Amino acid sequence: MRLMEDIVSLAEIPGPVYLAIGVFDALHKGHQEVIGKAVTAAAQNGGTAVVVTFDPHPRTVLAAGSAPRLLTSTRHKLLLLQRLGIGQVLLIHFDENFSRLPAERFVSSLASACQDLRKIIVGSDWIFGYQRSGNLQLLKRMGKDLGFSVDGVAPVCEKEKVISSTLLRQAVEEGDFLTSSTLLGRDYTVLGTVIKGKQLGRTIGYPTANLSVHNEQLPPSGVYAVIAARDSGEGSRHVGVANLGYRPTVEGERGRRLLEVFLLDFDGEIYGEDLEITFVEFIREEKKFEGLDDLKAQISKDESRVRQLDLSAS
Predict the structure, then answer these.
(1) Distance separating alpha carbons of residues 49 and 35, to the nearest angstrom
(2) Which CATH superfamily is domain 2-156 in?
(3) For the chain, which terminal residue's Cβ has fewer other Cβ atoms within 10 angstroms, N or C?
(4) 187-308 maps to which CATH number?
């Protein structure tokens, strides 16, 4: 996948060009519909589809104090786009200066950069530009002047509810993975980088991978059966037992919320690697034990429970 980080790079894309534009947090089914229309149109007309998105999420800049928790970090979103088969992504840096760019200038800059901008595809309710002045009507009006067409994709519904990041965020927060997978068309996953912890797990025979999690929206605290996908190629998926919480037995009352994963039947060095965690089943709530021996005994029970599930990591 080719990643571009400035609008002028669009000039290098042979026309005709089909742009799918949006924030696309989580890439749920509604977002996939927008992107899919660009991909289909490009394929039918010998053109190139480009996904245009933003980093960071605009609301973290415009409403930092009240911005919702992100469902996907930019790093995770790019990984998911690659899996969707997207070949071209324009990632625009969103900051205070960009937020003051008038909607008309943003659209004009896209049109002038492309060799042949044929179509822009957005969600029908997408709002953009300084003071939220840009919308579908503006795009269509400018398209007539600048020579491109516009598709506004209607919201996608599931059981009479509009699929949205808000609905998905609520499902994840409640640990409702059936609903989240329905809204996404895939399992909800969390991406994190393995970092060094206190390594106490090694002393009790259960070495864990401590994750610096990129996602902000996490399910409820507790112990889960998970599948962990590494970024190292073949044989990189492993069944595991994950603890999401404050580790009260180890950290006491001063703990911060962490995600740590014990990978079954795995012994390797993975510091610095990314792990993508799929939460498969809730095992139990997190609790404080009298000491490490009691903790070890409980982890052994958790491991047995996960093995009984006979999960496939292939």
Answers:
(1) 8
(2) HUPs (3.40.50.620)
(3) C
(4) 2.40.30.30
